[in-house]
Design goal:
It contains ten helices and no strands. It has 291 residues and is mainly α. It folds into two domains: 99 residues; 105 residues. The chain is flat, with a radius of gyration of 28 Å. The protein starts with a helix and ends with a helix.
Length: 291
């Protein structure tokens, strides 16, 4: 009787604790910059949203000795498109808190007699922030590489039809589906509307994204603007070059596919086929020898 009552009390306590944690997590709101309707909000992972309110208490990353780390982190945040969600100091604070959590879990697992699990959790918590940030930046760069040639084609047609570059860009962004490249150019247009010079706003775009192809296009546009050269033909040449580069990259990935698929085929498919084909023969041979 006492055992049943204790089990019920433990179950009720665990349920209450789960509801409490769920309520606390639901109050942690770190949404992103979904300003316009239809845009996909850029959201931080759940573990970032949990630690972000606490990261402001980690103040030693604001010291001058961490200036280089803050600068490098800020560049990564810009490349990943989350620089408006959290600062470099907050990101470093989140990494530090996750490191503390990893050591705490390692200590608890060691007390439970499973230090290996604790060590794996520690490694996971240490590597996850930078891995997620670099992966997000790579995905954004790939999305920009895919979208940039089509945007340059539309800009070429609009500019050759007589429109100004900024007017053509604004009209195209208003009609095309929102994506990473469109969001970055919209941010650039907003900076120009707030008074920043067009050339400086374009340079800031290249420095913010750190995507080689976009940087090349922006530098060509800025140089043409400084020299007073028409950018219609320039945009057409840049679009053709980027399209050829995209096709070359697709061919490279296609040529690498047979090599990449060789390992899973040898490791998983060949043993299964061998067992299916040879297994009955070996079984019948063993039965014959035994008889």
């Amino acid at each position: 009787m006492f055992t049943i009552a204790a089990s019920l009390c433990a179950g009720v306590a665990a349920g209450c604790l789960f509801l409490l944690l769920a309520g606390l997590l639901s109050k942690v709101e770190v949404d992103s910059i979904s300003a316009a309707e239809g845009e996909d909000p850029r959201r931080l992972p759940l573990i970032f949203r949990v630690f972000l309110p606490l990261s402001n208490n980690v103040s030693f990353f604001r010291k001058d000795s961490f200036s280089s780390a803050r600068k490098k982190t800020f560049e990564l945040l810009q490349s990943a498109g989350v620089d408006q969600l959290m600062t470099a100091e907050q990101y470093l604070g989140v990494k530090f808190l996750m490191l503390l959590l990893g050591f705490l879990l390692l200590f608890l697992m060691a007390l439970a007699g499973k230090p290996l699990y604790g060590f794996l959790l520690l490694v996971l918590l240490v590597l996850y922030p930078d891995t997620w940030l670099k992966k997000t930046a790579r995905q954004r760069h790939l999305s920009i590489l895919k979208s940039l040639p089509n945007l340059l084609d539309l800009l070429t047609l609009s500019v050759e039809a007589g429109k100004d570059f900024l007017t053509a860009l604004r009209d195209i962004l208003a009609r095309r589906k929102s994506d990473v490249l469109g969001d970055e150019f919209k941010r650039t247009l907003q900076e120009i509307q707030l008074g920043k010079q067009r050339q400086q706003a374009l340079r800031d775009l290249a420095d913010r994204v750190h995507q080689p192809e976009l940087t090349s296009v922006v530098n060509a546009i800025v140089q043409a603007d400084e020299l007073g050269v028409g950018i219609g033909q320039l945009l057409r040449i840049q679009g053709d070059q980027l399209r050829n580069k995209r096709f070359a990259r697709a061919e490279t990935l296609a040529n690498e596919a047979p090599v990449k698929i060789l390992f899973p085929v040898v490791l998983f498919i060949f043993p299964s086929v061998f067992i299916i084909l040879v297994g009955p023969i070996l079984s019948q041979a063993m039965q014959t020898l035994a008889g």
